[in-house]
DNA sequence: CTGAAAGCGCTAACAT
DNA sequence: ATGTTAGCGCTTTCAG
């Protein structure tokens, strides 16, 4: 292992001087600095982050909370995987390393916060916490800067898609295409995750504004985000209202399951029932008919979250939250009834 | 910050004694140990990994090399995302934390190996390196234990799907269904990644064994793994051989693009041309027709890799490589010509 | 501009 | 069974 003492020996300077040169601090003659840096390069010196961390109390480590308890898709989750991707790039560019935080370090008796202390992380990004998230409030109360990209945790700034706006636009699109009977297939909601409800509220808001009937019987809530749940939900909904023509789903998988149900009982999509989904998963452009949906701007969400975390790491104040619009992706799952 | 000295003060024991108790080392009376652990628990002591790492030279950190330079799908990659998922679970259960390795730490002048040294990682998993992987040989030559789940790097044990076997089975399946004219749409190959070629070799091997004609003109190589590449490749292949009825593709996206091409020129799938893909992406069960394909056993690959790394961390010897069979997923993209 | 001394939190080696 | 001493690699403080 090559240490600053090796450089000290080679150059004749003392360890603190080497340290100053390496870290670009002041109080050094340019010639000295250059000589030291040259020797460091020459003998292949690499700092020991653990030692540096011990004295400075900074680790240049960002903890990632990533569990995907909801969709069980792991890193392949259509939203979270993409956010993590960009977030990683952003923070590595700022000189930080990313480390996964878990609740099971040290024989399972640690909390997320414990894990932060153990590793002395400088900051935390909460991409997707495990279902039991109450302990996140401990994180929020700590002085470790954090940011969330999915859950709304009191005391932690978040960056989330403009779900209300998207729901509103979905309704507008159906109305514009002459639809008059609407339904919503909701996803599950948790203490800190209200995405499905926000989408519903936007959807309903637009419908009521245009004086359409949309009471609770037109919403069916899925216990999870999978295709099967969409199938079951559509079945129940159809038993109550077989006259709906416009179905908005909380995500693409639910929409796919619902379309499957319709086709399984001989109801044509989109001729008899139209669909709009959410997420723009890869399969959504392959299914039949290709699904009209919303794409969340993962890169932009990650960039905004990275920016917030960077500011907090620098001790600057930040907004309580940022909302990012989703992009509407029009395909062929919505029939224009005005033309028929 | 709570340290062992706080426990020492509270209990009256010295720091090394506290350390022994905390780490379960011998030479302590059970009573002493219990008292120390109780106090530690009571005052909420958490070890400082950086300090521990400084003295022990162990960091309990595993470096992850994950770039996805090939498919640009990031964590949503159909194979790598899944492997990372399970690998993470496995190693966290063994008391390790996962940290991403990059080549750009410290203003971009570090290599993967440099990054390992900086963070003093105990081991490395190479899930998917960046295109320029030559520096991995430096890692292989170092004494840091590593394992690879996609690339074959001299000196590093790997766990990879039985690609040859799968290719062989694909050919068998076509033959069993009465096909006589075959083609292969290859993916790109790099210095260390021969998956596409291995699949081809298995495919060809079976065809030749059954005395079918299969010269190089029946293979078209895509420059990348995307749908568009499959479309273009099928177009070129079709210009040479419009009589093939059985097309095996190096991955599902290429297969999807190729099916698109056929349908775009009015060739029916699977009635006139049949397809087998690779990966079993989510869209593969949604596309039209649903695609017959192979699913790589991501969990099993990750478990085997974790086992190899654990053994190497413990100083035990391991096999040079492990090959894991892929599962054949039969859907409706292969027509049985014997029945027609 | 440079160096000496001290210490971050922990553990290894040895002494008692 | 427990304590003493020393040191991991680095940076901070302060003296020169």
Describe it for me?
Two copies of one chain form a homodimer. With 340 residues, chain A is an alpha/beta fold. Chain A has three domains: 4-47, lambda repressor-like DNA-binding domains (434 Repressor (Amino-terminal Domain)); 61-161 and 299-325, 3-Layer(aba) Sandwich (Rossmann fold), CATH 3.40.50.2300; 163-296 and 328-339, Response regulator (Rossmann fold, 3-Layer(aba) Sandwich), CATH 3.40.50.2300. In chain A, 42% of the residues lie in helices and 14% in strands. Chain A has helices spanning 4-11, 15-22, 30-43, 49-56, 80-93, 105-108, 112-119, 136-141, 163-176, 195-209, 227-240, 252-264, 298-313, and strands at residues 61-66, 97-100, 123-128, 146-148, 158-161, 182-186, 219-221, 246-249, 274-276, 293-295, 321-324, 327-329. In chain A, the strands form four sheets. Chain A has a four-stranded parallel beta sheet, sandwiched between helices. The first copy, chain A, has a four-stranded parallel beta sheet with strand order 7-6-8-9, with helices on both faces. In chain A, strand 3, helix 8 (136-141) and strand 4 (146-148) form a beta-alpha-beta unit. In chain A, helix 11 (227-240) crosses helix 12 (252-264). The model of chain A has no long low-confidence stretch (mean pLDDT 94). Chains A and B meet through helix 4, helix 5, strand 2, helix 6 and helix 7 of A and helix 4, helix 5, strand 2, helix 6 and helix 7 of B. Chain B binds a DNA duplex (16 and 16 nucleotides) through residues 1, 3-5, 13-20, 23, 25, 27-29, 32, 47-48, 50-57.
